C-alpha cells in the first residue's frame, strides 16, 4: 500500500491533484484529511521556495512520500503581481471573492489587449528516501472584466485561458485538467513517478 501525503489545505487544489496524480498511489491524503492544525508559513520569495518549504515540513514530520503545490496568478499589467502573494493578496482572512474583487478593481482601467496573465504551478515531490524532485507548469491567458462560472476555485472565474473564450470556472474540469498550469506540472511529475515506481524495485 503506497500512500501520498499532499501538503495542502486548499480543497479545490486537492481535488485537482487527486484527479491529476494518476495511479501511482493507493491512497492520497491532504492536510485536511490527517492534521489540519499544521500551519506552514509561506514566506518564500518564489513558488519554488514555498513549495519546498511545505513539502519538507510534511516529509520531516511523517517520512512518507510527500507532494506540495505552490501556485499563483501573475498579471502582466501588475508587473507579475499577485504572484507568490496570490493567496494573501487581499489579506490573511479574505475569501476567493475578495481576491477577485481586488484584482478586478486594480485592473478596471486596463483594456482587453493588456489583460494578459499566467497561472504558475510548482510541484515538489519528496520520495520515501527523501529525494527531492521539482516540476513547473505555466498556463497563459487573460483576465476577464467580471467573474463568470461556478467550476474550479480561486481565481478561475476571471481567468480565460488562451485559445478559449470561457473562463476556467465556465470550462469543464476535464478541460482545465488538460491545459492548466497544474496539468502541465503533473505531466512532468508523472514521468518522474514512472521512473521511480515502474522501473525501480525497492521503493
Ligand atoms: O498552500 P496551500 O495549503 O496548498 O493552499 P493555498 O490556497 O494557500 O495555495 P498557494 O499558497 O499555492 O496559493 C495559491 C493561490 O493561487 C490561487 N490558485 C492556484 N491555482 C489556481 C487555479 O488552478 N485556479 C484558480 N486559482 C488558483 C489559489 O486560490 C490561491 O489563492
Ligand atoms: Mg498557501
TrEMBL record:
Cofactor annotation remark: Binds 1 Mg(2+) ion per subunit.
InterPro entries from the UniProt entry: dITP/XTP_pyrophosphatase, ITPase-like_fam, RdgB/HAM1
Pfam entry (one): Ham1p_like
CDD domains referenced in this protein's UniProt entry, alphabetically: HAM1
Binding site for Mg(2+): 70
EC number: 3.6.1.66
Active site annotation, chain numbering: 70
GO MF annotations, alphabetized: dITP diphosphatase activity; ITP diphosphatase activity; metal ion binding; nucleotide binding; ribonucleoside triphosphate phosphatase activity; XTP diphosphatase activity
Catalysis: reaction(s): ITP + H2O = IMP + diphosphate + H(+); XTP + H2O = XMP + diphosphate + H(+); dITP + H2O = dIMP + diphosphate + H(+)
Subunit relationships: Homodimer.
NCBIfam families in alphabetical order: PRK14822.1 (NF011397), RdgB/HAM1 family non-canonical purine NTP pyrophosphatase (TIGR00042)
Name of this chain's protein: dITP/XTP pyrophosphatase
Annotated source species: Caldicellulosiruptor hydrothermalis (strain DSM 18901 / VKM B-2411 / 108)
Amino acid at each position: 500500500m503506497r500512500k501520498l501525503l499532499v501538503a495542502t489545505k486548499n480543497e479545490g487544489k486537492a481535488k485537482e491533484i487527486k484527479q491529476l496524480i494518476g495511479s501511482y498511489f493507493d491512497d492520497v491524503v491532504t492536510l485536511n484529511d490527517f492534521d489540519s492544525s499544521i500551519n506552514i508559513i509561506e514566506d518564500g520569495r518564489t513558488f519554488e521556495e514555498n513549495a519546498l518549504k511545505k513539502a519538507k515540513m510534511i516529509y520531516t514530520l511523517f517520512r512518507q512520500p510527500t507532494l506540495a503545490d505552490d501556485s499563483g496568478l501573475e498579471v502582466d499589467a501588475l508587473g507579475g503581481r499577485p504572484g507568490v502573494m496570490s493567496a494573501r493578496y487581499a489579506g490573511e482572512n479574505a475569501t476567493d471573492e475578495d481576491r477577485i474583487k481586488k484584482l478586478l478593481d486594480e485592473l478596471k482601467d486596463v483594456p482587453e489587449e493588456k489583460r494578459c496573465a499566467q497561472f504558475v504551478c510548482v510541484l515538489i515531490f519528496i520520495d520515501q528516501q527523501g529525494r527531492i524532485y521539482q516540476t513547473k507548469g505555466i498556463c497563459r491567458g487573460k483576465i476577464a472584466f467580471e467573474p463568470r462560472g461556478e467550476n474550479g476555485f480561486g481565481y478561475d472565474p476571471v481567468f480565460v485561458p488562451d485559445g478559449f473564450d470561457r473562463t476556467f470556472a465556465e470550462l469543464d474540469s476535464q478541460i482545465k485538467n488538460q491545459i492548466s498550469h497544474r496539468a502541465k506540472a503533473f505531466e512532468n511529475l508523472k514521468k518522474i513517478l514512472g521512473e521511480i515506481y515502474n522501473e525501480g524495485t525497492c521503493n
